[in-house]
Structures are given as C-alpha cells and as structure tokens.
Amino acid sequence: MNMLTSKAAETEAPIRTVAVVGLGYIGLPTAAILATNGLDVIGVDVNPGTVKAINNGDVPFVEPDLGVHVAGAVSQGRLRAQLETPAADAYIVAVPTPFKADKSADMSYIAAAARAIAPKLSGGELVILESTSPPGSTRRLAELILGLRPDLSLDGRDGKPVLLVAHCPERVLPGRIMIELVTNDRVVGGLTPEAAEAAAALYAVFCQGEIHLTDAATAEMSKLVENAYRDVNIAFANELSVISDNLDIDVWELIRLANHHPRVNILQPGPGVGGHCIAVDPWFIVAADPGNATLIRTAREVNDGKPGYIVEQVRKAVSEISSPTIACLGLAFKANIDDVRESPAVEIVRRVAEQHPDAEILVAAPHKDHLPQVLAVLPNIRHVETDKAIETAQVVVLLVDHDKFREIDPASLEGKRLIDTRGFWR
Ligand code: SAJ
Questions:
Q1: Residues 6+ apart with CB under 8 A from 345
Q2: Residue 417 pairs with which residues in a beta bridge?
C-alpha cells in the first residue's frame, strides 16, 4: 500500500484512503489514477447508474484509456464506488459548478459535498476542491464544514484538531485526460501553507509535471484565467471570421499567413465555443468583478453570438429552396469526442430546425447513437449515417471537424451549397 507523508502530514496521519466526490469527467479519471498508483479510493456519486457501472469496471462516458484504468483499479480492489460519502484521510471534491441564469456559479453541489463530508471528519483530514470555482469558493467550502464542525479548525487554534483545505484545479483536455493528468503541471492553493503542501504530496503520487504552491484564491483564479485567455483568443478568431466574410476574404488563409509572424498565433474560428469549461468559466470572473471584466465579457458575447451568425448563413442558403433538406455534420462541442455539453453545433441544429419547420434536418453524429433530447423532441430532425445525410441534402453544414468526416467522398458534395464552419474542406 502506498502511504503518503508530507512535511505537513508528519504531524498528521498519513493518507491511505481517498474519497473522490463526483465521478464525472474529472473525478473518475482522478479516482482511477490514484487507485492504480496504490491508494485505496472510494468514489462517491449521486447517480446509482454511475456507481453500478464503475463497480462493474465500466466507464459511463467516452474518454480514451480511462476504461483500462477503471477496470484495472476495480479488479485489484483499490477502487469502488458508492452513494454515501465515507470516512477517509483525504477528500477530493470534483462536482459540477454550472452557472445559473444570471451567469453566477451554482455552488449547490459543492455545498452538498461539504455537508456530506462534515460528519465524517475526526481531525487531520485533507479536503481538496477540484471543481472549477469562483474566487473565494475554497474558503466558503471550509467555512461551511467548520460551521457544522466547530470542534475543528484550519490552523489548530485553541488546541482544536486541524482540517487541511486546498484548491487544486484540473487542467486536462477532454480526449487526452489520462495523459494530461500525469504530464500537466498543477497549481495547488492552500488555505494554509500546510494544506497546500499536503495536497501537493497527494498529487505527486501520479503527477509528473511540476506542482506549484500558492494560496487558494490565486489557484482558483489561475484556472479561470487560463480558460478566459483561450476564450478571448478564440473570440478574436471568430470576430475575424465575420469581418472576413463581410470583406470577401478567406479567414483561414488570412490567419495562416498572419501566423507566419514570429509573435502572432491566432486560433481557429468555428461555430462558437462549447464544452463545460471555456464557455462557462470566464463568466465567473465577470461575476466576481463585473465593472472591470469588460474584455472577458465581450469575448464571451462574441463567441456566444457565433451560432446565430451560422444560423443566418443557413437561412440565406435555403431562402430560395422550398422544403429544403439540410445535412448537419457533427454535434459534439469539438472534434473526435461525444460530449455535447454547451455545444454550439447542438444549438445551431436546434435553431435551424425551429426556424425552418418545412425543412428536413438530417444530422450525422458519428460518435453518438442517438440525438440529445433537445433535438429528439423536434419533428423535423433525423439522426442518420453521414453518407445518407449528404445524399439528399441541398445544403451541407459542417459543424464539427471529426476525423471521420475525412472519409466523405468529395464527389458526393458536388452541386451542394456548403457551409463549412471550421475550414475543414479548404
Ligand atoms: N475552439 C475553437 N477554436 C480554437 C480552439 C478551440 O473554436 O482554435 C473551440 C472548440 O471547438 C470548443 C471550445 O473552443 O468548442 C473549447 O475547446 P478547447 O479544446 O479549447 O478546450 P476544452 O474545453 O476541451 O478544454 C479546456 C482546456 N483549457 C485550455 O486550454 C486553457 C483544458 O486544458 C481545461 O482543462 C478544460 O478547458 C477545463 O476543464 O477547464
């Protein structure tokens, strides 16, 4: 058995068992990698289907190499899943932080995790918040726990047993999670220096990148800033694409040429920005300082405006066709994955179908075997094979640059109106 000790942990009990609360895209890979590195891991999730699947060694979503890790850890008896939060030496909270209608973060899942952890503590434990959260969230998590457990403290004052609380944001790229978990650097922010060191020691079990220690609020903000940086840069590319259309310039050629400058690296335009991270996290910065986050807010608005621009291009393309057939290629928020969270492709397909009730919308989504509910309820959308979608369509809209669409025979596109949102067929 792997037994962790750190400078902080010398005075505390070593970490043998870790409870990972929330077994989604981040929690489950983290649980599996801790388990395959010798710790005893109990995964906790509110979804009985997820718990059952994991205990059978299965993974309830698509992520390369995760299945092998989960199956191995479960069969070795190092990983098990359950509905109740257990007593453990360390807790990693990896629950969702969606945004609410006003774009502020919904902290209810974190609060529920805190309430479930509090009664299990006896002092000396480490609690790590991994969920992407607005600045101040780790402190609020600690205050919630300590409100329920006034017999504990963050710093040992009045002789009370210590609770170590830290933030360690995930930075892995969907589709490469099992690689990046190991190779990426990590930022670990503690409410106390001891908490940061204890959390760093836990991540050092599997992380081969550098682990940088800071305070919790800076760690929270660093994660938000990384994603806002990317969002702002994608917004620049998306704005360029609209300006270029207007000036009759090929934006992909424009960007390719500009990127030959040694200090220019423009990203790629697309149908909008999706996923549960880049499309969400910048709003947490805006909510934290609305008066000053003008560029960050504008970038979000530019990227959120791109699906509407594509819908308008489709409207123009079908304006003279009665009862048109429109092929929409791809639903995921980016290439070669099945994840449709916040996907601009789904939004575009929905809006096109609603705006053109007389049109037949044929959707090809090679990584999915069914349509998401929001599309399945619309009567004029069908999920079909890629070739079938193209065959009868007058207009073909490429929404996701999946490798599988490379197999499309160029001859099958001849004579059709193409709306290529990703520069895929350039
Ligand atoms: N996109 C473009 N043009 C580009 C790059 C991306 O339109 O040039 C679009 C994609 O199509 C997609 C969206 O942006 O709709 C986001 O995709 P992504 O690949 O940029 O990022 P995610 O959401 O898969 O993962 C990001 C990563 N963050 C950064 O690169 C700063 C990842 O490292 C984070 O761990 C992840 O967010 C997260 O969980 O926060």
A1: 271, 274, 328, 330, 331, 332, 333, 399, 400
A2: 395
Rounded to 10 deg, the angle between the 294-318 and 216-247 helix axes is: 40
- Same domain, yes or no, for 189 and 312? no
Query: Which residues belong to the active site?
Result: 223, 277
Per the prediction, the chain carries an average pLDDT of 95
Q: How far is Cα 175 from Cα 190, in angstroms, rounded to an integer? A: 29
Sign of CA dihedral 347, 348, 349, 354: positive
| Residue (of 112, 133, 88) closest to 22 by Cα position | 112
Q: Please report, for the domain that includes residue 327, its CATH number.
A: 3.40.50.720
148 and 296, same domain (yes or no): no
Q: Which residue has a Cα nearest atom 25 of ligand 1?
A: 173
Q: What average pLDDT does this structure show over 168-194? A: 95
Mutate to test the pocket of ligand 1, among 234, 238, 306 (most ligand atoms within 8 A of CB): 234
Entry pTM: 0.90
pLDDT tens digits, 350-376: 999 999 999 999 999 998 889 999 999
User: Could you say which of 225, 247, 271 is where a domain stops?
Assistant: 225
Of 225, 252, 276, which one is at a domain's C-terminal end?
Answer: 225
Who's near 355: CB < 8 A, 6+ residues apart? 311, 315
